[in-house]
Amino acid sequence: MTLIDGQLIREYVKQECQKYKPLFQASQKEVAIIRFESSENVSSHLKARYDAARISAEQKVATFNAIGVTSNHIVLSSNIAVEQFESIIQSINEDNQVAAAIVQYPIPIKFTNSIRLLEAHKDIDIVRGQSNNLFENCATAEGIARIVESYVQRDSNVAVVGGGGFVGNGVIKYLEASRISCFCLEDGDDLSRTEAADIVVSVTGRQGIFTPYVLPSHRLVVDGGFTPTASGVAGDVNRSAYRIPQNITPVPGGVGPIEMAILAERLVKMDLGVELGKWNYQQLQQSQLQRAVIIAPISKALFRQQATVYPQYIHQERENLFVLQGANYKVIYNKSVEILSIARIDEKLTLIRLNLANNQIETARGITDEDVTRWQQIQTLINPAKTQSPDRGIEL
């Protein structure tokens, strides 16, 4: 079983969008993100969906900010009048600085028709349910379908569970337009019918409906569920079934980051008229692994040398966790699990995760050619013949 790393795609797209960051910053464009807070008398299931919307909105804010676009995160009470909501939509339509707008689902039923007032050319996530001549389906549906495209084979058959919903229907439309064979199931149908497919997509939002008893082995399972729980978040696939598919998108960390990547791509196209190249997950994964294979042994050698020669630069953050930090990177050694991780100093993202017990690279994402060059330069300094100043060691 292999977990598909949605952050790999998000970081790749973010790097591509960085080329256009000066243009966004100069134009001072913004994206409006509207979400509703749940009322006190909603069901626990609906409340969980509102909580998921909050998390998703916050991720969108971070995504757009990363590429130089300000987000106006508007949080509304479910009790506001329809006229107030429509006034907000109209102000977004009339504001030329607003490049795009998103209305987070779920929304109270009374506002359903009001969403259609949003101008089509600002509807980046197809919240109106209608094509706008740029995009046919919501970003989540496109992201899921493009992951499927990365694994589909000539004779593939895709089961879309929850295919009648907003996201599921978008997945089916995308796959059919790409001439990929698929069929629809709903929550409550006989899920054993997924045996007829080699790829399964689930977008029901029903926590843990896929268990080892109903999920046979597949080439790919895409879990589009996202339900906040007391212990974190859960998807449609029960954790006990993760070991069964050959590849699976985890929750969290799978479809969510991919959705953010699609939205970033769309903003570049919508506002700048630039269409980014189409990614393939397996190709990106291979490219990142090739870069990680170069950097990982250098970081391993560096940490060992510094720990021996300049131990004063190895900081113990907590028991069994040791950090070597420089101007650009930090190398983190977790002794309890024998894991060496590499991250940029100004980011939380782990670029490389190396399992020292078996010398296997478990994570490789967000690595640029510049990173490879810098680490190759560091490698020239990890040479016993070179004399390092005893007061500083090697600068990362």
TrEMBL record:
Residues 28-125 form the Tetrahydrofolate dehydrogenase/cyclohydrolase catalytic domain. It comes from the Bacteria. The keyword Transmembrane does not apply. Gene3D superfamilies: Leucine Dehydrogenase, chain A, domain 1, NAD(P)-binding Rossmann-like Domain. Residues 139-269 form the Tetrahydrofolate dehydrogenase/cyclohydrolase NAD(P)-binding domain. Keywords: Amino-acid biosynthesis, Histidine biosynthesis, Hydrolase, Methionine biosynthesis, Multifunctional enzyme, NADP, One-carbon metabolism, Oxidoreductase, Purine biosynthesis. InterPro entries: Aminoacid_DH-like_N_sf, NAD(P)-bd_dom_sf, THF_DH/CycHdrlase, THF_DH/CycHdrlase_cat_dom, THF_DH/CycHdrlase_NAD-bd_dom. Pathway: One-carbon metabolism; tetrahydrofolate interconversion. One of its GO terms (cellular component) is cytosol. It holds the Pfam family THF_DHG_CYH_C. One of its GO terms (molecular function) is methylenetetrahydrofolate dehydrogenase (NADP+) activity. One of its GO terms (biological process) is L-histidine biosynthetic process. This is Bifunctional 5,10-methylenetetrahydrofolate dehydrogenase/5,10-methenyltetrahydrofolate cyclohydrolase.
